[in-house]
Known about the structure:
Layout: H1 7-16, E1 20-24, H2 28-36, E2 41-44, H3 48-51, H4 63-75, E3 81-85, H5 95-109, E4 113-115, H6 121-132, E5 137-142, H7 161-177, E6 181-185, H8 189-198, E7 203-206, E8 214-217, H9 219-222, H10 240-256, H11 271-283
Helix pairs in contact: 2-4, 4-5, 5-6, 7-8
Bound molecules: 3-methyl-2-oxobutanoic acid (KIV).
Amino acid sequence: MSKKVSTLTFQKYKQEGRRIVCLTAYDYSTAKILDKAGVDLILVGDSLAMVALGHPTTHAVTMDEMIHHTKAVTRGVSRAFVVADLPFMSYQVDVKQAISNAGRFIKEAQAEAVKLEGATPLNLETVGRLVSMGVPVMGHLGFTPQSVHALGGTRVQGRSAEQAAKLVQDAIALQEAGVFSLVLEMVPTVVAKIISETLTVPTVGIGAGRFCDGQILVTDDLLGKYTDFQPRFVRRYANLAELCDQAISSYAEDVRKMGFPSDDESFAFPEEEEAKLRSLLDTLSIAQGELSC
Length: 293
Ligand code: KIV
């Protein structure tokens, strides 16, 4: 195994201009595949509400559900750095609530950091307090899915100079509060570039152009497994939905025509034992069906 990734790795990558590879995971087997492929950071994103649980937005996922999935992910990872997403209303009430929920991710699920959306005064205070307690925090600006209703839908953020300047200010405020990294979602390329050049901590883009210090995608989007919609910034590297459909249809056909399982996929019973069994069943007056194998 190559060296375990930590927050220091990301700092080093930024200084060296080396890109950070990030993806989401919600379960053990996916996390294992990503880790083996050399993904640097695995986010247990609250996108699991939509992708794994079928909700229309990220709002419905609970802390308990996030903990359940984060535990599964951390069991599958040995190298990558695992970040757990604080779900909607798990940190917006007050700092105490945020600390207690972030603590659960670290204590119960072995996450190594947490992520929160936005740069409200409360969030800035929360970041500072968590960092002072030894909990690394990842920020998230631009399109923040937990605010989808307030933002009027899934839209690019920072399109005007004034809005972009506010994003830059928020990014600096989060860095000063202590985030180790910052996700920029659906932000114009130039704005993400300016933020990436301004900050000393690495930015991780999703729909934010190629100049971010790293990139993240939802794994199910990249693999073509989640097909409810495809944002413009997603590149599909596989079409798993189609592959799965073909595989499952073949399985169904095999089952229906008794082509599965074969003898090689089943367990044999010695002939002499079968003869004994049949006579035993006769003795017990248990009626036997016709031999059909
Ligand atoms: O929840 C999530 O998957 C995310 C990424 C898209 C950054 O926040």
